[in-house]
Amino acid sequence: MKSKTSTINERKRTDNMLDSDKQVAQPGRPIDKDKDQAILEAARELLFGEGPHAVTMEAVAKLAGVSKVTLYSRHSNRNELIAAVMRRQAESFAETITLIPGVKPNANKSLLDFSLAILNFLVDPKHLQFMRALNAAHGTELDLQFFYLQGPQKTVERLSQWLTALAQAGEIECEDSIRSAEVFLGMLMRLDLVRGLYGIPIDNSLENLTAHAEFVVKTFLKLHESTE
């Protein structure tokens, strides 16, 4: 049985590997980015289409059109593979709040784009199905805490970093960027996820999502308005 320290160290090593988002090529054999993309897309389709239980190394390799050897050379087990998918999803959200050196940030537009990307994801029927399946995965060999750290927590951290940068630039007031990031995401999610899990219809029209996103962004920026 592994010790607690050993388990923590293994998780840190895996987390660092995922954070670098780089694959180590074999000598004389360049990395095939197309295969990397195919693997993550296949895993994502299975994860959000059928649930975590459907993400097996065999199923992903078959759907991606790659050999299991190729798959294992990139992801040593399905926990790492699912975590990579979760992290990639978080990165796609963060693309809307990327700061460009020398360019004055447009906090309102960036937060609005960020909000719509997240809302469209949250109210997608496949995501609701995934959440139900995730709840059923408790007590299995799946590392749900690791998935959280690589998905939702990464989103919180990236938003927090962006808010910190805005505060340093004098655009907003933000004393606790992590808390502010969580408040923003909580306002954004409201009870739609809960409603969806209870089978209550959600108005996922672009008009409704945009109106809600605009309200949240306006309210949040008002709370963090710079006094300078």
TrEMBL record:
Membrane-crossing residue ranges in chain numbering: none
Stretches for region Disordered: 1-33
GO function terms (MF aspect): DNA-binding transcription factor activity; transcription cis-regulatory region binding
DNA-binding region: 56-75
Lineage: superkingdom: Bacteria
Keywords: DNA-binding
One Pfam match: TetR_N
Domain HTH tetR-type: 33-93
Biased composition (Basic and acidic residues): 9-22
Keyword Thylakoid found: no
Keyword field contains Chaperone: no
Protein source organism: Oleiphilus messinensis
SUPFAM superfamilies found in the cross-reference section: Homeodomain-like (SSF46689)
Protein name stated in the entry: TetR family transcriptional regulator
Annotated InterPro entries: Homeodomain-like_sf (IPR009057), HTH-type_TetR-like_transc_reg (IPR050109), HTH_TetR (IPR001647), TetR_C_Proteobacteria (IPR039536)
